[in-house]
C-alpha cells in the first residue's frame, strides 16, 4: 500500500498548495491513502469545516490535528459529525470528536489512523500518550481488524516521539511526528518494521518562522513587548511529508522516504514511487 502523509498545512498558502497539488499527486503516484495534518490551516490557528471539507475534496482520506484543534470554535461542533476528522486521542474523556478511526484505502485495505499528542514541553495535563497509544492499538490490532496502522504523534520533543515509535514498533505500520513544522532527516524503519520520522515538516511558506510571518516571532525573542499578532506567512508554499510503502502481507513498512515539493526546500520524491 502506498501512503502519503503531509505535514501541518499552515495558512492559506499551505492549504491552497495542498488542494491544488494533491489530486495530481494521487493520480501520478497511484497513492492508496493520504493523511494531512490540518491543525494550522486557518491562518495558522485551527481549521474550519470548509477547509476540512476542501481537504477531503482534494483527496485526503483523513485530516489529523493537535494542540490547535479548537482554535476555530466551529471545530467543536463538526468534530463530532465528521468521521474523517481526528483530534488527539489522549484528550480528556468527554472531549468532542474522536481520536482514531478505520478507513478503507483505494486498494481496499483497512487503515486504522490514530492521532496522539505528546506532553513534554506541551501539555503535561493530557492523558499519558503511551497508555493511550496502547489502548488505541488494542482496539484495532494490526493484522486483525486493520491492514495498516498509522499514528500521527503530534509533539514537541523528539525524545518523546522517538520513544513512542519504539514503544509501538512492530504493532504500527508507521509513527509520523508532526507539530514542529521542520522536517527531520531521521526517517527509518525500526527493528520491528514500523516506519518512523520525528517530524514530517509542514505545508507552508518556509521563508518564515514555522509558517508564520517572521517579524513578530523575531520581535518576541528580542523584546518582551508584542508589536502585533502572529500572522501566517503568505509566500509560496512548499509541501513536506513522507511516502511510506506498507506490505500488503504483514501491514508493516517496507520503505519510508521524504516528500518535498515547492520553491524553498530541496525537492524530493520517494524513489520507490517511480
Ligand atoms: Fe501543533
What is the compact description of this entry?
The protein has 274 residues and is of the alpha/beta class. Helices cover 22% and strands 23% of the residues.
SSE layout and pairing:
Layout (H helix, E strand, L loop, with lengths): L1 E5 L1 E2 L1 H18 L4 E5 L11 H9 L4 E3 L10 H4 L21 E5 L5 E8 L11 H11 L8 E7 L3 H10 L6 E5 L9 E2 L5 E3 L4 E2 L11 H8 L16 E8 L6 E9 L13
Parallel strand pairs: 1-3, 2-11, 3-4, 6-7, 7-8, 8-10
Antiparallel strand pairs: 1-12, 5-6, 9-10, 12-13
Bound molecules: fe (ii) ion.
Fe (ii) ion (FE2) binds next to loops.
What report would you give on this structure?
The protein has one domain: 4-Layer Sandwich (Purple Acid Phosphatase, chain A, domain 2), CATH 3.60.21.10. Helices cover 22% and strands 23% of the residues. The chain is built from six helices and 13 strands. The strands form three sheets. A six-stranded mixed sheet has the order 5-6-7-8-10-9, with helices on one face. A five-stranded mixed sheet has the order 4-3-1-12-13. Strands 2-11 form a two-stranded parallel sheet. The mean pLDDT is 98.
Amino acid at each position: 500500500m502506498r501512503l502519503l502523509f503531509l505535514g501541518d498545512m499552515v495558512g492559506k498558502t499551505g492549504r491552497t498548495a495542498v488542494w491544488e497539488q494533491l489530486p495530481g499527486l494521487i493520480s501520478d503516484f497511484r497513492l492508496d491513502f493520504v493523511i494531512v495534518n490540518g491543525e494550522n490551516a486557518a491562518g495558522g490557528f485551527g481549521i474550519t469545516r470548509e477547509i476540512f471539507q476542501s481537504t477531503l475534496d482534494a483527496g485526503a482520506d483523513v485530516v489529523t490535528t493537535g494542540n490547535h484543534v479548537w482554535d476555530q470554535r466551529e471545530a467543536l461542533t463538526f468534530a463530532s459529525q465528521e468521521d474523517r476528522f481526528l483530534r488527539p486521542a489522549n484528550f480528556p474523556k468527554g472531549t468532542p470528536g474522536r481520536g482514531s478511526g478505520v478507513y478503507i484505502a483505494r486498494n481496499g485495505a483497512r487503515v486504522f489512523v490514530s492521532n496522539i499528542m505528546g506532553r513534554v514541553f506541551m501539555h503535561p495535563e493530557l492523558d499519558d500518550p503511551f497508555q493511550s497509544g496502547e489502548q488505541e492499538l488494542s482496539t484495532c490490532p494490526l493484522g486483525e481488524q486493520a491492514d495498516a496502522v498509522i499514528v500521527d504523534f503530534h509533539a514537541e520533543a523528539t525524545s518523546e516521539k522517538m520513544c513512542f515509535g519504539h514503544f509501538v514498533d512492530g504493532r504500527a505500520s508507521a509513527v509520523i511526528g508532526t507539530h514542529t513544522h521542520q522536517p527531520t532527516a531521521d526517517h527509518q524503519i525500526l527493528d520491528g518494521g514500523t516506519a518512523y520520522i520525528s517530524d514530517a515538516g509542514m505545508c507552508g511558506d518556509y521563508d518564515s518562522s514555522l509558517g508564520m510571518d517572521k517579524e513578530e516571532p523575531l520581535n518576541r525573542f528580542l523584546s518582551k513587548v508584542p508589536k502585533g499578532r502572529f500572522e501566517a506567512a503568505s509566500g509560496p508554499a512548499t509541501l513536506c511529508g513522507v511516502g511510506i510503502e506498507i506490505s500488503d502481507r504483514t501491514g508493516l513498512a517496507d520503505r519510508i522516504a521524504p516528500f518535498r515539493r515547492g520553491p524553498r526546500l530541496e525537492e524530493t520524491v520517494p524513489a520507490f514511487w517511480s
